[in-house]
Amino acid sequence: MITVHTLGPAGTNCEKAAHLWLENNDCQGDVKLHQTLEDAAKYMANTDDGDLLLGCIVYPHLHHLVFKNLNYLKLIDCFVMDTHNMVFASKNNNPGEIKTVGSHPAPQDLIRQVPGINSQFSIRLFNSNSEAARQCEANTVDACISTNISASRCGLTILADFGPVPMGFSIHAKIA
Fold first, then answer.
1. When you count CB atoms within 10 A of the terminal residue's CB, does the N or C end of the chain come out lower?
2. 74: β partners
3. Which Pfam families match (predicted)?
4. Any idea what the Cα angle at residue 126 is, between residues 125 and 130, rounded to 5°?
C-alpha cells in the first residue's frame, strides 16, 4: 500500500494529481494531505520507503524542496494533468467592491485578468488554492483565486472561470 503525500487541504490540484497518479500506475494507496509540501517532505523523512511525495512544478521554491532533501528523496516521475478549473470567486457578486484577494502564490497573476476588478485591491497569499477559498469563506479576504471544487465547497460565487490549466507534477520517492 502506497501513501502519496501532497498539498492540502481537500480540493487541491495536487490531491487530484495524486489520485490520478495512483490510478494510472495501477497502485493501491492513500493520499495524505499536508499544509505545505515542505511539511510533507519533513513527514516523509520518518515514513516507510514505499511513501511518495507529489509536487507541482509551479509550487514556489520547488527547487528547494528537491535540493534540501536529496539525502532521502529522489525524483522518479513527472506527468502533465489538467487542473481543476481555476476560478476567481467571492461571496460578493460585485468585483469592483473587492479590496482583498486570497491566492496561492502560483496562480496569483490570474487576478489581473478579472474584468471589472478594482485596481486598488491587496493580495494575501495562502499555502494552497483550497486554503484561499476557505479563508474567503471565513471573510479573511473578500475574494480568491482557487479551484472550482474548493469555491463550490465553500459556498462561493464564481465570478470568473479561467478553465483548467495543463500542469506538471513531480513524483519523489524515498531513497532505499
1. C
2. 173
3. PDT
4. 130
**AA identity, residue 78:** C
What would the 3-class secondary structure string for 6-56 be? EECCCCCHHHHHHHHHHHHCCCCEEEEEECCHHHHHHHHCCCCCCCEEEEE
Q: How far apart are CA 92 and CA 38, in angstroms?
A: 33
Q: At 91, which amino acid appears?
A: K
* Parallel, antiparallel or unpaired: strands 157-163 and 86-90: antiparallel
Whole-number pLDDT of residue 46: 87
CA-based Rg of the chain, rounded to a whole angstrom? 17
Q: What is the pLDDT of residue 63?
A: 92
Locate 10 and state its grid cell: 481537500
pLDDT range class, residue 128, cuts 50, 70, 90:
very high
What one-letter code names the amino acid at 171? I
**Nine-digit cell at 29?**
494507496
User: How far is Cα 42 from Cα 91, in angstroms, rounded to an integer?
Assistant: 36
pLDDT in tens, 56-113: 999 998 999 999 999 999 999 999 999 999 999 999 777 778 999 999 999 999 998 8
Contact 130, 11 (CB under 8 A): yes
57 C-beta neighbours (distance < 10 Å), count: 12
3-state secondary structure of 58: coil
